[in-house]
Amino acid sequence: MLERLNALLNAAQTICSSLDIEEILESLALEIRNIMEQTDAILIFSYDEGTDKLVPCHTYGISSREAGQIRISPGETIAGTVFKTRKSILLPTRQAVRQAMRTMSSENLKAYQGSLGAPIYPESAICVPLLYRNDCLGVITIDRFIPDTPYTVADAQVFESIANLASTAIANSRMYQQAHENWKILSDLNEQLRIAHEQLGHSIAINKALAVTSLRGQGLKTICCKLSEMLHSHTLILSDSLELLACNDTFIKQAQDFSARLAGQLTALSPDTSISPFTCSVCDLASYIVPISDGTIFSGYAVFADYPEENFSLIESVSSMACLLLAIELMSREREHQLKEEFIGESLNALLKGNLDSRLLKRLQTISPCIGQGKSLLVLMDATLSSSLELADSQDLLSFRRLQKKLLHQISFHIPRPIYTKKDTSVIVLYTFPSHWKDEKIYNHIQELYTGLQKGLSARPAPLRISCGRVVDTFTDLPQSLTDARLGIQYLQTLTNSPPIVFYPQLGIRKLLFRHDNRDLEHFFLDVLGPVIQYDREHHTELLPTIQAFKQCHHSLLQTASALNIHKNTLTYRIRKVRELLKLEHEFGRQWSDVELALDIRDYLDETGIWDN
């Protein structure tokens, strides 16, 4: 008895010497084996409140893998009964053990006997609760499989003493773990408060720097560079028409491609102040997009790209103040631009009305110094022609305004100090060239301008169409150039697949044809060339293409025969056959002029898309 008391004292010192739960359980199992001699198996269960089950947390003498699958409900088998009643159970015989285990579920019995390696039962067992104050932390079960050495009441009493020591140690360990977790949570909260306080200081410093920059009127570029430097990110400003307005210096080379790809993602969004900031990936760079608005008017987007992840919350806190200052800056720029646009438009309209005097000329020369020093022409640019935009629809109207704004931006980019005015859906541009330029060179220059403009508008939903009036030497003839340009736009509207650019003075007979009813033109064509068409259909000949080529080759038999890849005699026969069918005396004169006019009508009706060859 004295030996057991000494063993218990040693066990108390060993078990309570650690606050680590794994070390406590390992020491507990070792002390049980030392004090409770001939113990073959030990199962320590802890109670899981989440599942309301007793779960094995440590084993000895059996397979922990299979034993780990056991889940005992309160009241089930020996361990569940002890946990529920909080009273120890001594089972001195195999029959008593088997009888007590009858309430064990089949799954738990299979797992238990699997941990033993055979479908056997202990010869003797003791199960005691782990009680701490008013709680039962779990239970401990010990088994003997050797016959004739059953556990005794004295064994049960000693085992209860060990369990009481273990309960205190386990409870202390849990309280320590909880205190440690609370300390860790508190440390994390302190760290978060420190970061928040640091970010607040950074945010105040950034907002102060932005306010100073704005008050000094240093512009968008400086604001972008300030934000980029202080937030360690690339910063871009896009207008409401999705044009790149400014970016930080270190991102200039990539900015155009980046903003073009971002514009493609933003095109589907309505320019509305209700849009919330959002994150996305552009060119594989994490980006934070913030609408720029003063609360009522949407002005564009601020973009923060390639930012450190730890700076995201700082960017969020700074962005609202930054976007408000940017909104003020953008609205100021927009108002200044509108005043300038109105001044230019009024000057050009006065010029087109014939109100030319020295004061007006000086006004125009303040805008563009080359005005009045060479040839001029008026160009109409329309980016809604042949598009699906319905300007009565509010959404399409917003899209049109974006489109026209983008067109004006591109015009200003490609034409130094342009003079223009907006008229309905078109933009009228006054173009001035050196006096020694020939018309052909001027028209080639307009073609190059169109290529540059169309490239800038490539992401938009509508094509760009340009109509050029005649080239004039004096401003007094500009109204006629404007009339030509307007008629050119009307001509383009009659065509199904219209060319992107038209020079009205070069349209020739089409300047007359497009003003007539297509049915009248069709009747004239059939009246003149009907017999030739009928003959081609009946005899499968090619008389109509032949006289078309004959006209294009200016009545040259050799050139026409070469163009058609036929013998000269074959061509002569075909021409003679046409004269016979149309009752023509020769290939010139008024009657042949009717034939050529009919061929021009045929080409025009083909262009309109209503003519079936």
Protein model, in words:
With 613 residues, this protein is α+β, with helices and mostly antiparallel strands. It contains 20 helices and 15 strands. It has helices spanning 2-15, 21-35, 64-67, 77-85, 94-100, 106-116, 153-215, 219-231, 252-266, 312-352, 358-367, 394-414, 439-456, 478-493, 510-513, 518-539, 543-552, 557-564, 568-582, 590-608; strands spanning 41-48, 53-60, 89-91, 124-132, 135-144, 234-239, 244-247, 278-282, 285-293, 298-305, 375-382, 419-423, 426-433, 465-468, 501-503. The strands form three sheets. The protein has a five-stranded antiparallel sheet, sandwiched between helices. It has a five-stranded antiparallel sheet with strand order 7-6-10-9-8, sandwiched between helices. A hairpin with a 4-residue loop joins strand 1 (41-48) and strand 2 (53-60). It is elongated.
Shape assignment: elongated
* Separation of the first and last Cα atoms: 121 Å
Going by helix content, strand content and strand pairing, the class is alpha+beta
Residues in helices, as a percent range: 40-55%
Q: Which stretches of 5+ consecutive residues score pLDDT under 50? A: 386-395
Tally of contiguous helical segments? 20
Using DSSP, what is the number of strands?
15
Largest sheet: number of strands, sense, barrel closure: 5 strands, antiparallel
Rg from Cα? 47 Å
What proportion of the residues form beta strands (DSSP E)? 15-25%
Q: What's the rounded overall pLDDT mean?
A: 81
Strand order in the sheet with the most strands: 2-1-5-4-3
